[in-house]
Amino acid sequence: MTMVQMQPRSTGAAPVPRTVADAMEAAGPQVCDDMTVEVALSVMASARTGHLLVCDNDGVCTGLLTRAQLTSARDSSVYTDRVQLRDVLVAPGPFVSPVTTMTDAEHAMRYRRLDALPVVDEHGNALGVLALAR
Hints:
alpha+beta
């Protein structure tokens, strides 16, 4: 008698695409939007990070600021030591959901020329950050 080795049959199901939840990093430092630019730069330096998640007084994520954006604001001719993060973060967002596919998120980030994007839940709370690998 000859043994026959059986191969598992393909079910034809498409592979499940990776989501943002699979690739996001921990949220990292979150700061309130009433913080001044100088204090935010100090927090960023001590946390050794290139970005900060900005939240409103209710804890809802309103955006992400990078060191370059904060430095640019500080070097602006209209800068005073009273400029708050909400003044620098002009429009809220953009954000991404943890169930967004990586393909869609990467496309959106490249199209908008973003290095990092906040990942938020359905209530706007920050869950993490999606950063492009260079």
